[in-house]
Amino acid sequence: MPMLDAGVLQFDVTIGDKGANFARVEALLAAEAAKGALPRVLVLPELWSTGYALERIGELATPGGEAEAAFLGELARKYGLWFVGGSVLASVPGGYANRAQVIDPEGRLVATYDKIHRIRLMEEDRYFLRGNARCRCDIDGVPSGIQICYDIRFPELSRRLALEGATVLFVSAEWPSLRIAHWSLLLRARAVENQLFVVACNRCGESRGTPFAGKSVILDPWGEPLWEAGGDETLGRAVLDLEKVKSFREGLPCFDDRAPDLY
Q1: Of 131, 133, 146, 170, which has fewest CB within 10 angstroms of its CB?
Q2: Are 14 and 51 in contact (CB under 8 A)?
Q3: Is residue 44 within 8 Å of residue 85, measured between CB atoms?
Q4: At what angle do helices 180-194 and 155-163 cross, to 10 degrees?
Q5: Distance (Å, rounded) from C-alpha 257 to C-alpha 82?
Q6: In angstroms, how far is the first alpha carbon of the chain from the final one?
Q7: Total H helices, total E strands in the chain
Q8: Catalytic residue among 135, 137, 149, 201
Q9: Measuring CA to CA, which residue among 156, 160, 169 is closest to residue 100?
Q10: 35 tagged catalytic
Q11: Distance in angstroms (rounded) separating the CA atoms of residues 120 and 27
Q12: CB contact at 8 A, 119 and 113
């Protein structure tokens, strides 16, 4: 199996200001590119271009999130990388979605995922349609699964993605400091129980009085961190040796010992 150079871009999202967030992403990438430090795949936070400005969703959302897809497509072509573009406000038939986007190095939007589990604490059930499909796609040839924030509290989704062949789980989030211990615990559990890598990007900073602790992380299938952020803006990366997934699953074949007829 191949190696994958994966990274996360943890930054402070400016609520409701696409221009500021586009400029911040562009500046952070340019600074890292000057050091030759860009990964092959880069994950952004949830709602990275707007934050939770849901009361302005009609103004900020574009069809399918086309504005963000076009912006990331230009950067993907410029730097030769994949984006798991966090998620964006996307207008869709019948309403709006919290939509993750996968952009390839040629700038093409190759996959999308609409958040299935809507968190009522953030009023997502009022503003977003529920996603109706999992996203298991190949990113740089690597079988991958996509999730957004609250999804990681529902282990059934991660398990289905793993059973469908995912060896890396990409997660974007706006996870608040108040529950950051849960973030770390749940991500580690998803890695261990499914014997896969987890590449998880959270935002940092503060929005409307709510602090966000960052703590983005890249975990191996043993649940051990290959890289972990603190609370500041940063671009972090790690090379994933995907042979580890095969060896872990062969050494402890827990998928074969499931009893799905009982649960």
Answers
A1: 133
A2: yes
A3: yes
A4: 30
A5: 35
A6: 32
A7: 7, 16
A8: 149
A9: 169
A10: no
A11: 34
A12: no
Using alpha carbons, select from 173, 170, 77, 92 the residue that is nearest to residue 130. Answer: 92
Q: Indicate if 137 belongs to the active site.
A: no
Distance CA 100, CA 114 (A): 6
Task: Give the separation between CA 149 and CA 110, rounded to whole angstroms.
Answer: 21
pTM for the whole structure: 0.97
Closest listed residue to residue 29, CA positions, set 47, 13, 50, 44: 44
From the candidates 32, 68, 115, 204, give the one annotated as an active-site residue.
Answer: 115
Tens digit of pLDDT at every position of the chain (263 positions): 589 999 999 999 999 999 999 999 999 999 999 999 899 999 999 999 999 999 999 999 999 999 999 999 999 999 999 999 899 999 999 999 999 999 999 999 999 999 999 999 999 999 999 999 999 999 999 999 999 999 999 999 999 999 999 999 999 999 999 999 999 999 999 999 999 999 999 999 999 999 999 999 999 999 999 999 999 999 999 999 999 999 999 999 999 999 999 99
Query: Which residue among 18, 32, 46, 68 is the active-site one?
Result: 46
Residue 18 token pair: 């696409």
Active site residue 46: yes
